[in-house]
Amino acid sequence: MTTGPELDAARLLLRRLGVEPEQLLDAASHRTVPTFDEYIPQVAAAVPDGTRRVYTSYWNRVQLVWGSRALDEPTPLEITQLAEHTKTAGVMRRNSRGGRSAAEHLIGALRCVYRHAEHDGFITRAANPALRVPKPRRLTSTRRALPDGAVGEINEVAARTGNDPELDTLLLRLHEETAGRRGGAIALGQQDLDSANCLLRLREKGQTVRWQPISPTLTRHLEAHTRERNTGNHSRLLCYRDGRPLTARRYDYLWARVGEHLPWVARQQITTHWLRHTTLTWVERRFGYAVARAYAGHSGRGDAGVTTTYVRADLHEVAAALAALTGEPHPLASEPHGFGQPRTEEKAQSPALVRLS
After folding, report:
1. Domain coordinates of the chain in residue numbers?
2. Domain 31-132, what fold?
3. What is the dihedral of CA 214, 240, 184, 237, to 10 degrees?
4. pLDDT digit string (tens) for 28-53?
5. Start and end of every Tyr recombinase domain (predicted)?
6. CA-to-CA distance for 222 and 296, rounded, in angstroms?
7. Is the CB of residue 286 less than 8 Å from the CB of residue 320?
8. Nearest 5°: phi and psi at 201?
9. How many CB atoms lie within 10 A of CB 291?
10. pTM for this one?
């Protein structure tokens, strides 16, 4: 309970600011808290494209259930109940893990809305109900690096089946070389290919941007691909045969098809992200943690420790690792100080990469 001296101090501060206590009461009484239907579209227009893509379906669900309610009405218990319902009603995908991700995203979507509501003064942090609902604990990932034989089988199936093996092999080679995420490949524009330096600019989650070395072979095939296929009015790099820009559906089709020919791919729910694990594991074993971290495009923040501040690898070392991976020289791979060299000759052998015809 506030004591007499504290009230006196508060009144003194208000007098110095020229504010009467009644004015605060009047301002609070006239502050109307918006409904979810009114506020969510404003939040959606203010967040990055990636955040909007992830959260839109969950915001739609919130509007369906609570659209006419004010932001300050739902309780932590109601949010927990909605998250649990979202968890059980989620679409069961090949890599589903019991709906935990759906519940996590629902809570994340609400926290995003309430964070903006805090900034706008509609609620206080202490009154934010989403902060009092813990996200489901993430399970340990089942993804791991694939052995060369497994990667070779996947590459072979992609190259000899399907309605566009040329596109599929190009996608696999791109991810095997760059260890990039699926979203980064889909977002590639023609301006993101630096042919002279064999570099590809990847825009990935968290609005990160990095230039990633690629082999001369992949560079030539990407140039030819966009020259032959980009007949539409857009600037995207990767396209279907008819000139339409690449979408995530191609990846779904690719891995479903590979799973039909290789049952172990379907059983283990292998996707493009497994190629990222495979390439980064190979790089780390041969060139060390700092090079692998730079190769992955990680920022250096997180739980890796402050030592990463002092042992960051540069673009030339990443290029040297890429040159060893592909067996092709790279224009940026010169290492005058010997950094980025394989630890042993035996370990420097390249893994299986899909062949580009």
Report:
1. 1-28, 31-132, 148-348
2. DNA polymerase; domain 1 (1.10.150)
3. 60
4. 545 689 999 999 999 999 998 888 98
5. 134-323
6. 21
7. no
8. -90, 115
9. 23
10. 0.73
